[in-house]
Specification:
eight-stranded antiparallel β-barrel; Porin; mainly beta; 1 helix; 11% helix; 55% strand; 143 residues
């Protein structure tokens, strides 16, 4: 008799504690890609004055804390681009201020990142006054 009473209790315990869970596992977000350090590459752009697309050599240095980045890109011929933003495992979202030939402008930028490559596009910059130097440009950095 005792065995007959124990069987329903054990069955209820197994049903309540085990078996198939209907809760989906929490997705794991991959860590941000580390882009800290030195990079080299190119800045390709179309001048506002028209003509052929131009390619200039660049060097860059980024610092990173978790997913926050800051960086400076030195453009051949004397220009600079300062970046501040966020990286994920595969993307870059930042704001930039660029200065070329005494003309400065700012823009929001986005692009892609990996352990060996950083790429972003700069739209036409919001500049002060009447200066402008390109309609859009692409940075491609490698290490």
């Amino acid at each position: 008799m005792r065995r007959l009473l124990l069987l329903p209790v054990l069955s209820a315990f197994v049903i309540a504690c085990g078996g198939n869970s209907t809760t989906a596992p929490t997705p794991v977000t991959p860590p941000p890609t580390n882009i800290a350090g030195n990079w080299t590459g190119t800045f390709t752009f179309t001048p506002t004055s028209g003509g052929q697309r131009q390619i200039l050599a660049v060097t860059a240095t980024f610092t990173q804390g978790s997913d926050n980045i800051t960086g400076q890109v030195n453009i051949a011929g004397g220009g600079t681009a300062l970046l501040s933003g966020i990286v994920s495992a595969t993307t870059l979202t930042a704001s930039t201020t660029m200065t070329v030939n005494n003309c400065s402008g700012s823009a929001s930028v986005s692009g892609s990142v990996s352990a060996t490559q950083v790429r972003w596009t700069v739209p036409t910059l919001a500049t002060s006054g009447t200066c402008s130097f390109f309609t859009s440009g692409d940075f491609l950095l490698s290490r």
